[in-house]
Amino acid sequence: MCVPSVSLLHALGYTELLLCVVALCVLVAKKQWRDYAALGLFLAVRISSDVILTGVHSASGHLIEGHLAYRIYFYVYWISFAVESVLALLIVYSVFRLAMEPLKGLQTLGMLVFKWAAGISVAVALGSAVTPDMTGTKYIMDAISQLQRTQSILTLCLLLFVTFAIRPMGLSYSSRIFGVSLGLGIMSTNDLVQSAWLVFNPNLATTYSVINGVVICTILATWTAYFALPEPKRRMIVLPTTSPFLRWNQISQALGDSPGFVAIGGVPPELFAPAELEVMRRASLKMVTPFPSASERIHVAPAPLPERIRAFSLKIYS
């Protein structure tokens, strides 16, 4: 590794840390944490890991013994990498939720499909890392790497849909939803290219590290610009009656409706509160009934109160 490359990597590392802090501060200052909490946590985790890794690397061999410094660096790097992959999925989830907010039916259905896809992706990543020669550290590296790849593919697929739905959903390419989606798409593409690059060109890892640093800094600068600049107001959505968005939204809402309920059979008086029983008793007294004949008045006794309440409740709920 040549000296200029090392100096450039250090400069990119400090620039990335600075841009992460600026992007997080702008997100909080613009009061966007509620809608983009996953993105804020992603930036916070990246800031923390960068600070710890830079400190461990600087203290290795001086304040921290070399072997211990390597173990700390290894676990911090891979754990933060796994957390960032999960948070990237949550960012896509929040972007989809915000983009489809006007169409509640499609929003609910899409979020349900997204949860299933994310769960399957995590299960596949953990299962595919199991090999006969598996060790603790090797399993961690393989599982997290596979999780990152499946997350990148899932992110690209969902972001492709969000990109095509930007205009029909009343958004523009200047909206923050599109800006966050654009940054995630570039990041996922970069991660997939990096995985393939390191497999076929392991000797050029330093070269791609420089490229990766430039790409990450570009993404962070893009996010900072989108949150710092004023966002255009969302347009009102006007869909034709033949629009597939409208039709599928109506179907999704119909599928999600709760069914009505009908009381069948007798309702015991014990289910009612005393005040309800008194109201029904008074109401039953006011009900108009045929005047009984003399013989009926002699041979038929009035029904007890519970039976009258039960009959009245049947009349109400039938």
Q: What are the SSEs and their pairings?
A:
Blueprint: H1 3-29, H2 37-59, H3 66-99, H4 104-128, H5 136-164, H6 176-200, H7 205-228, H8 244-256, H9 274-286, H10 294-299, H11 305-317
Describe this structure in words.
The structure is a single chain. The chain has 318 residues and is mainly alpha-helical. The chain has two domains: 3-254, Up-down Bundle (Rhopdopsin 7-helix transmembrane proteins), CATH 1.20.1070; 269-317, no CATH class. The protein is 73% helix and 0% strand. The chain contains eleven helices and no strands. The protein has helices at residues 3-29, 37-59, 66-99, 104-128, 136-164, 176-200, 205-228, 244-256, 274-286, 294-299, 305-317.
* Low confidence ranges: 294-301, 312-318
Order of helices and strands: HHHHHHHHHHH
CATH fold-level name of the largest domain: Rhopdopsin 7-helix transmembrane proteins
Helix fraction, binned, reads over 70%
Beta-strand residue fraction: under 5%
> Biggest β-sheet, characterized?
none
**What's the CATH architecture name of the largest domain?**
Up-down Bundle
CATH level-1 class of the largest domain: Mainly Alpha
Give the overall form. Answer: elongated
Determine the structural class based on helices, strands and strand pairing.
mainly alpha
Counting H and I runs of at least 4 residues, what is the number of helices? 11
Number of strands: 0
Tally of discrete structural domains: 2
**pLDDT average, as an integer?**
75
N-to-C span: 84 Å
The Cα radius of gyration reads 32 Å
